[in-house]
Amino acid sequence: MKTALIAAQGLTVDRPGSREAALTNVDFAIAPGEIVTVVGPNGSGKSTLIRALLGNLAPREGKVTRRPGLRIGYVPQRVQIEQSIPMTVRRFLSLPRRIGNDEAAAALTRAGVGDLSDRSIGALSGGQFQRVLLARALLGDPQILVLDEPTQGLDQPGIVAFYQLIEQVRAETGAAILMVSHDLLVVMRASDRVICLNGHVCCEGTPQSVGSAPEYLALFGGRGEGTLALYQHQHNHDHDHLHDHPSQVHRHVQHSPDGCNHNAG
Amino acid sequence: MSSTAPTGATTMLDDFMVRAVLAGLGVALAAGPLGCFVVWRRMAYFGDATAHAAILGVAASFAFGVSLYLGTLAVAAGMALLVARLTALGHAMDTALGVLAHSALALGLVAASFVPDLRVDLSSFLFGDILAVGRTDLLWIWGGALAILSFLIWRWQSLVSTTVNEELAMAAGIDPRVERLVLSLALALVVAVAIRIVGALLISAMLIVPAAAARGFSRTPEAMAILASVIAGVSVMAGLWGSLWFDTPAGPSIIAAAATVFAVSTLLRRP
């Protein structure tokens, strides 16, 4: 993909402080304006992928190409703000770069929390805080937003509202969005493309095709039921049976009888 | 302290009480903002270890005849860097920090007992001797305090960012190790500056108590830093006044005053 904002080829990345590979031979690309979601079980290397793509982790093999001068807005996983330091939302937005009041107000409004400027960070609900983090990531007019599990700790209505907001932000700003998520059902509906990860790319494609891929089902058999209901196709799902898909929209990266367990065997 | 041509300023500085007030305010100026970082980053043990190591520095200065400030600064900086290194290893360093903090003090006291001149004077380094501050001390104290202050102002945005959340700061290109180093050195400097004022045992208190008292009344980090300095300054004045009036030791009186402000502020904040 020559127009990609961020691309990676043959990425192998070790877990920080060890020689054990968290990711093996991963190819990745995200185009301008695209919403891509990375799903996968705990420890499948989702955050490692994000950090390698951002350049925070050096890969053992392969390379990451970012468009020169790419403006990135980043929300890391499980951001915890030190509570002993007094901090208003407005002051928080001016870290580490001081910004003007207009810029702060615009970002907060876009994230749907325009009225929280003077509130104390510690007094925000989980959903409000995630939106403030989103507002902070929107400062500096990013070409791509990178959100690592942005809805962790939110309830179901909060999650749905957050993803609606994400789609709206994309529509308004044209920014590409790369997300890591556990919220399969909602996330997949909001995505253009889903990448199912488990140490390597198991499968990727449209939400519908990934939702019915055997690799995906083997990983998320139980928890993906909601997704299944949404994207139910005509064929019967059988975890142990490698069947042909009528429309091969998604790309199977690896086939194995037990789905996509990289520890198997 | 004889001055040959007394002008207004020199006459004023000839008064030990004026010198004491100026010295105390210098320390308060630096201790406010730096103390906030000690509170925010939970560096209380860190402060203790660094301050206690200063006694070792005092003993070394006496033994080798180097400047008291340089000796204290060097040993405190060494301890601060060692502790920073340990802290970076993880949160489970509580015990190791405790061991370091107290053995530094014990070693310092043992070392001090080998230096006859110091044996007489030891308590003035443990609890401070602000009323004995001379003009050279004032130069050191204000030089050091202003250095700490400019250091902190220079790094302020990065320091606060790292303190609020390391990962967000790193994503913005800030290296938390640099900020830890800045704070370690500032802490060593404040120990050297404050040891004559409140003494090695109470330096941590001078950092933590005013900052803790300021916390409940502040909505931003900047407000808390300024308020902490103001509270420290008020405590210095009140402590010195109390020390004169009731004939109590000055260093502990200053901390007692700060503790009173803290207690009152806590009561005021209670609904």
Automatic annotation (TrEMBL), chain A:
> ABC transporter domain: from which residue to which, for each copy?
6-223
Question: Composition bias, kind Basic and acidic residues: at what positions?
Answer: 235-247
Name of the protein in question: Metal ABC transporter ATP-binding protein
Task: Write out the ranges of the annotated region (Disordered).
Answer: 235-265
Keyword annotations from UniProtKB, A to Z: ATP-binding, Cell membrane, Ion transport, Membrane, Nucleotide-binding, Translocase, Transport, Zinc, Zinc transport
- Return one GO MF term: ATP binding
InterPro entries per the record? AAA+_ATPase, ABC_transporter-like_ATP-bd, ABC_transporter-like_CS, Metal_Ion_Import_ABC, P-loop_NTPase
So which domain of life are we looking at? Bacteria
